[in-house]
Amino acid sequence: MKKFTYPKEVLDKMKDIVDDCMGDAPAYCEATCPMHTDVKGYVNLICEGKHEEAIRRIREKLFLPGSLGRICAHPCEENCKRGELFRQPMSIAALKRFVADKYDNESNWDLSKNPDKSKKVAIIGAGPAGAQAALDLRKKGYNVTIFEKLQVVGGMMRVGIPEYRLPRNIIDFEYSFLTKLGVEIKLGIEIGKDISFEELRNKFDAVIIAVGAHKGVVIPVQGHDLTGVSNAVDFLREVSLTRKFKIGKKIAVIGGGNVAIDVARSARRVGAEEVHLVCLEPKEQMPAHDWEIEEAEEEGVIIHDSFGPEQIIGKDGKVFGFEIKKCVSIIDKEGKFNPKFDMNMMKTLDVDNVIFAVGQEVDNSFIPQGMLETIRGGRFNADPTTLQTKLKNVCIAGDASGRSVIVIEAMAEGRKAAISVDRYLNNVDMMENREYEGAYKTWLETDINLDVEDLPRVKTQQLAPKDRIKSFVEVDLGLTEKQAIEEASRCLKCECKLCMKECLMLNDYCECPKELFANILKSGEVDPIIPYSCNMCNQCTIACPKDFVMADRFFDVRKLMINANGGKSPMKGHGAIEMHQTLGFSKFFNIAKPAKISAKTKATAKNE
């Protein structure tokens, strides 16, 4: 059937639908996820029992589903509408872990990639940021080599997150995807020692610096140089690699974040009988996740909230005690970090060790002085959109950029850096169409249905506290299949597409009106059967939150078609519709020159 070409004035009337229709708007969870995982899609597949299809859907965006299912800070859950309604968001991470543990296997891995290119890319650091950059570039056909200082892959995810939260076999299994894809990983290679940064730049067409924040910070209070004082990074690294650390029976941990909690709980597992956690914030304002705090207390960690360090007391050059003071405020009137203390409220803790968990820095000593601009914490200065440094063939990702603080964000930074390297090597504009990289606010607007049943969040099973502290066995045991399906059924399936639920015609031709009219605008033409399939009932408009009147657009097109076709409908074999138009009273149907209808046809129509 011959397609009809629209004049500009008709196309212009369709543009508002293309600009403002929410039919293609991602759900709140997907937009908030820095890697844009199709959360709604895989959760609903789990609900339907299609678990293998669910893990394939996850792997379209994430190559670390098992790891992230355990340790992701899941910003997606913070914007979950169930959480907004009932303060119990979907357990998204646990559902991801369920299908990863039970159904992720090499047969489901997509190892396809573009043909090999001649250009080579070096990546410094085998953490999540560097690994994601390597994966994306290898998929595009580049020859990629990762240089890792440690003898293991995973970066800070491996040596900064305790094994009781993330078993090491999970990391090794998921990282094997990179080597199967053809990424070369060189372990135990320190840039600046085993190979210089300049040599790396000369041997490779582009370099991505994706080193983690592997330098711990110690507050220079009196006694900070005593034997028995350490920092969280060094402590967690040694414990992760050896499951040991020379420690006394009583220790104090300084800090209120998740890292401090990890240190405190790990200390219990390497022999500390009494662990004190000291933080400036009141307990309800601690940066650590609520469930982390709860689990730490279950394991016997004593929290001294609203206290800060005064001095570390020494004896014979070793830690003998720790004096702390009451914190009455943290932020001053100008909004700056400026703690104030009540010196009349002091405590002295009897401890053998003090571990500071108050921040981390990047070791940038492998870069010749002045070659790259550095900022606070040893991080590198780079364009925030492209992550490109002043050396055009060098990009930054992960903690090195000073932009990422959690694993999923580090991976998004790695993807961003990979896009920039690809564009640089192909002389493509570095800035165009980059507004939706990383987390963003969706343009979806949905009303919360107050009639939705308040279904409680399904909790994962856990080891008993008395058994946890005896080893580094994983604490969280995950969901059973029954629990996973029950939890997945809580999803509200946030989307617009209300018109699609009212109109069979739209479902025949598109996923949403935006797609349909975008294709029309792009080509300037359409098959006449599409506008003639609309019966002008306006149910789509009644349902539409934006009040788009699609019937009017189709009506305009029909009139143009009739005029261009000499007053006749352009549809062949359209007698039945012409009869309906002739006999109908609505102006919307009287848009074709009436066909000559026989008495027999009229009688048949009357009987029907």
TrEMBL record:
InterPro entries: 4Fe4S_Fe-S-bd, 4Fe4S_Fe_S_CS, DPD_II, FAD/NAD-bd_sf, FAD/NAD-binding_dom, Helical_ferredxn. Keywords: Iron, Iron-sulfur, Metal-binding. One of its GO terms (molecular function) is metal ion binding. The keyword Iron applies. Gene3D superfamilies: Alpha-helical ferredoxin (1.10.1060.10), FAD/NAD(P)-binding domain (3.50.50.60), NAD(P)-binding Rossmann-like Domain (3.40.50.720). The keyword Repeat does not apply. It comes from the Bacteria. Pfam families: Fer4_20 (PF14691), Pyr_redox_2 (PF07992). Residues 524-554 form the 4Fe-4S ferredoxin-type domain. This is NADPH-dependent glutamate synthase beta subunit-like oxidoreductase. It comes from Serpentinicella alkaliphila.
